[in-house]
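Just curious: can you write whichever protein you like plus the matching structure tokens?

***
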Amino acid sequence: MSLKHQFELLAAYNQWMNSNLYEAAGQLSAAELAKDRGAFFGSVLGTLNHILVGDILWLKRFATDPASLDALRPVAELQAPTRLDQTLHDDLSCLAEQRIWLDRLIINWIAGLSDKDLGGLLSYRNTKGVPANKRYSSLILHFFNHQTHHRGQVSALLSQAGVGIGVTDLLALIPEETPA
């Protein structure tokens, strides 16, 4: 399986898990969504906002690469979040709407990348302005891993609130194959 195919699988997993997470979060009241539960970003809503903030920051960086500019232009045109704990939306339905839009964009962006694109370097500055030059494919892996990390936190927060999200394993999306 090529690296690109693996990233396509991660993009599909990202969309699937976000859909499941938002559906489960929708079972909570606005007060329960915003309740500080002691997580890194406080609440379910705070953590969902952080995932979106992180995605936007990374996608804006990826958009500086010529291979990604066209696919990520809509994100490049967004105002950059100013803090990792920034609340982009204090309403779950508005947050979910932007999440759905962004997940479709991520799938299309990954589908348009080539193996050559994935092998290149990306030069960027982190949120503190520190310059970095790192392998594009490794940064995409970090991008998906960051989402998974924080979705795991949201899953735990939802569980504490009495809401389950069902299967969360990537294994659920890995297709069965016939041995050669």
Observations:
- The helical segments are 3-25, 30-34, 44-62, 66-76, 92-111, 115-119, 136-160.
- The beta strands are 121-125, 131-135.
- The longest strand covers residues 121-125.
